[in-house]
Write a sequence for this structure.
């Protein structure tokens, strides 16, 4: 899934200049409601603090490697990406039980990069194009705050939001300039995990 999203994002960069010529249907106004509440899943780039009760010598903080694994005292190549902190803690308890008596593990996540399918990608004429970890209840305005808004060269009212719904790729027009510069809250929309926002450059 992550590879598919990356391919689509790269394809979008190639065709982003054409976004200003096409008008897609709009999305409904933001509801400001929590809709996709789910437990956080650890992703590559996160750091995890592993606390083993009664065994401070094996308690540590380690990064999640790009391949999704962690290495900790007494343990090598433990898969972490895609698991909740609780799931990883139970796996570590099982692995450590070979060396320690009745280990009790708590995992605390730091960094919060998350897994790729739950990130939102912003491409084109954003002040800081980047991938943002989705938060439940996030709106387009929240996303714009995180990327610093749009550049002076952006055609903000013809930005395109790519969304995967029912196994299909669908595109919607969003009005970033109306939202940011004209404070039209009717232009604010709800975001979803995996959304891709394409901001084209203005032709004049």
């Amino acid at each position: 899934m992550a590879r598919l999203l990356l391919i689509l994002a790269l394809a979008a960069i190639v065709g982003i200049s054409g976004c200003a010529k096409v008008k897609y249907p709009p999305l409904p106004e933001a509801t400001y409601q929590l809709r996709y509440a789910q437990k956080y899943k650890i992703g590559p780039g996160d750091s995890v603090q592993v606390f083993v009760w009664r065994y401070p010598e094996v308690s540590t903080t380690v990064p999640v490697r790009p391949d999704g694994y962690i290495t900790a005292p007494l343990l090598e190549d433990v898969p972490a990406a895609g698991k909740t902190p609780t799931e990883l803690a139970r796996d570590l308890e099982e692995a450590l039980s070979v060396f320690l008596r009745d280990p009790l593990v708590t995992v605390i996540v730091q960094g919060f990069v998350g897994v790729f399918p739950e990130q939102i990608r912003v491409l084109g004429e954003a002040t800081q194009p980047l991938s943002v970890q989705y938060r439940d209840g996030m709106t387009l305005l929240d996303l714009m705050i995180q990327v610093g808004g749009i550049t002076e060269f952006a055609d903000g009212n013809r930005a395109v939001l790519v969304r995967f719904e029912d196994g299909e790729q669908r595109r919607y027009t969003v009005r970033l300039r109306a939202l940011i510069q004209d404070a039209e809250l009717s232009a604010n929309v709800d975001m979803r995990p995996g959304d891709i926002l394409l901001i084209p450059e203005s032709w004049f």
Notes: Residues 2-38+117-199 form a domain with the Outer membrane lipoprotein wza fold like fold (CATH 3.10.560.10). The helical segments are 2-15, 85-96, 140-147, 176-180. The two ends are 37 Å apart (CA to CA).
